[in-house]
Write a structure and sequence with these properties.
This protein is of the alpha/beta class. It is built from 18 helices and 22 strands. It folds into 2 domains: about 240 residues, Rossmann fold; about 240 residues, P-loop containing nucleotide triphosphate hydrolases (Rossmann fold, 3-Layer(aba) Sandwich), CATH 3.40.50. The strands form 5 sheets. A 6-stranded mixed sheet has the order 6-7-8-3-9-10, with helices on both faces. A 6-stranded mixed sheet has the order 16-19-20-13-21-22, sandwiched between helices. A hairpin with a 2-residue loop joins strand 21 and strand 22. The longest helix has 16 residues. About 0% of the residues have low confidence. Bound molecules: adenosine-5'-triphosphate and magnesium ion. The site of magnesium ion (MG) has 6 residues, from helix 1. Pfam families: ABC_tran.
Length: about 500
């Protein structure tokens, strides 16, 4: 570490009805990885959006290399050598990878036309350096969430920034990809780049960061040297109390088969997938990104079609052609991609929460407002959704709280099969524990749950059995006693 790259002092930011930041201090040195830690809604993303000129500052000062600066807009931030990898992916889906990386700053030929050849060459070089096995010509909508996240990272690196903010860069990456990202971070460190690292995965903080600043409810709690602190100390700083009983799960014998999938095949994506899900069971789905877990669930939920195979619900073959058919069979699917497939960001919390049960609300051709309000308040309380009111636009909630709205919506449909795709992605430790407790309670009430998760400890601790996928196939289904980290990784990488 050598010299203060960045200093933010007394930063205050108010939104209508919400104090997002109250006098927050933050500093970053050259070559340092400095984590920002705090519960969902603590103000981490807001602080970093101010640094990146996305929000203006109400009060406070920002210094870069000791000089006070005003950051008015993203262009200013770029000029000061700052770039951000956003929590929510912000690539343009129908443009190519290269076009996304160079959007708005395409290399030009002497005649001032976009130098398409050079642009693709440069982008390809980055992709190859990162060993992604992708062509720069691929359009972004063909990529998985993890791949998109890697493109966001490449984009930030390609600006040759001095300060890079990574707002939950790993939330949809698996271990192997995280390792890769960390290699990149170590490289950047050596070049003197300062990195602000936001993550709810505590183990990552211990592996990659030098210091950690903790925030709570928009205030600054403190800064610690990573080597000198512990997991428990950090959690106590974060939530203001100790957290016991993290994974809550009362295992009991599971009941009869509720969902049965036989030899499901979708060409090039899923091959001969067969499994059973029992009453009150939590069946984990593990595998590397791209193994076909979400794709399989999309077939079951009627979002994608399949050529072969059958789906049985309660012993009867069902024909699921679209999500409505699935919902009629009491199957619910909480998607991993909350922005594109899940939430209506410009609508209220209430609207997003109740949309799937609107039929219930409309009695005698008028909306039953009372029921709608009751349901909304019930879930806001039960999942501790942090929002100033049920009328708040969902797009204004913090990332983790958006996730809770999405889960609540599907819980409100009272499903018998609940498919959760990366349910705790971007969710803080306290809220994670709440989600686990809810899953446990639902399983006890007889709901059958499928949980796709890239976090191995979560799959292992919460699941009755773990299905491991590899290249579109269910490679192995492990019983509780056999599902440890090594065994899962063995099958996830193609072992027999
Ligand atoms: N554009 C906005 N309009 C209104 N309120 C906002 C806006 N952006 C953020 N907020 C509010 O500011 C507070 C801080 O949100 P922020 O997104 O910074 O939290 P966070 O620490 O990044 O949380 P997470 O871990 O869930 O991502 C929250 O209460 C949030 O609802
Ligand atoms: Mg955030």
């Amino acid at each position: 570490m050598s010299g203060k790259l960045l200093e933010m002092k007394g930063v205050t930011k108010q939104f209508p009805g919400v104090y997002a930041l109250k006098g927050v201090d933050f500093e970053l040195e050259s070559g340092e990885v400095h984590a920002l830690l705090g519960e969902n809604g603590a103000g981490k993303s807001t602080l970093m959006k101010i640094l990146n000129g996305i929000y203006d500052i109400n009060e406070g000062n920002i210094f870069i290399n000791g000089n006070e600066v005003q950051i008015n807009g993203v262009k200013d931030a770029r000029r000061f050598g700052i770039s951000i990898i956003h929590q929510e992916i912000s690539l343009v889906p129908y443009l190519s990878i290269a076009e996304n990386i160079y959007l708005g700053r395409e290399p030009l030929t002497k005649a001032r036309f976009v130098d398409i050849k050079l642009m693709y060459e440069n982008a390809q070089k980055f992709l190859d350096d990162f060993d992604l096995g992708l062509s720069a010509k691929t359009t972004v909508n063909q990529l998985t969430v993890a791949q998109q996240q890697m493109i966001e990272i490449i984009k930030a690196v390609s600006f040759h920034s001095k300060i890079i903010v990574m707002d939950e860069p790993t939330s949809s990456l698996t271990d192997k990809e995280v390792e890769f990202l960390f290699k990149t971070i170590r490289n950047l460190k050596e070049q003197g780049v300062g990195i602000v690292y936001i993550s709810h995965r505590m183990n990552e903080l211990f592996e990659i960061t030098d210091r950690i600043t903790v925030m709570r409810d928009g205030t600054y709690v403190g800064t610690v040297v990573t080597k000198e602190t512990t997991n428990d100390k950090l959690i106590a700083m974060m939530v203001g109390r100790e957290l016991t009983n993290y994974y809550v799960r009362d295992f009991s014998t599971t009941g009869e088969t509720i969902l049965k999938v036989n030899n499901l095949t979708r060409k090039g994506v899923i091959e001969n997938a067969s499994f059973e899900l029992r009453k009150g069971e939590i069946l984990g789905f593990s595998g590397l990104v791209g193994a076909g877990r979400s794709e399989l669930m999309k077939c079951i939920f009627g979002l994608d079609s399949f050529e072969q195979g059958e789906i049985m619900v309660n012993g009867t073959k069902v024909n699921i052609k679209n999500p409505n058919d699935a919902i009629k069979n009491k199957i619910a699917y909480v998607t991993e991609n909350r922005k594109e497939e899940g939430l209506f960001l410009t609508q209220s919390v209430k609207y997003n929460l109740t949309i799937k049960i609107l039929q219930d609300f409309i009695k005698f051709l008028r909306v039953n407002f009372k029921y709608e309000n009751n349901e909304t308040n019930h879930y806001i309380n039960e999942l501790s959704i942090k929002t100033p009111s049920p009328e708040q636009e969902v797009g204004n909630l913090s990332g983790g709280n958006q996730q809770k709205v999405l889960i609540s919506r599907w819980l409100a449909t009272k499903p018998q099969v609940l498919i959760l795709d990366e349910p705790t992605r971007g969710v803080d430790v306290g809220a994670k524990a709440e989600i686990y407790a809810i899953m446990n309670r639902l399983a006890k009430e007889g709901v059958s749950i499928i949980m796709i998760s890239s976090e191995l400890p979560e799959v292992i601790n919460m699941s009755d059995r773990v299905a491991v996928m590899y290249k579109g196939k269910i490679q192995k289904i492990l019983n509780k006693e056999d599902s440890d980290q090594e065994t899962i990784m063995h099958y996830a990488t193609g072992g027999n």
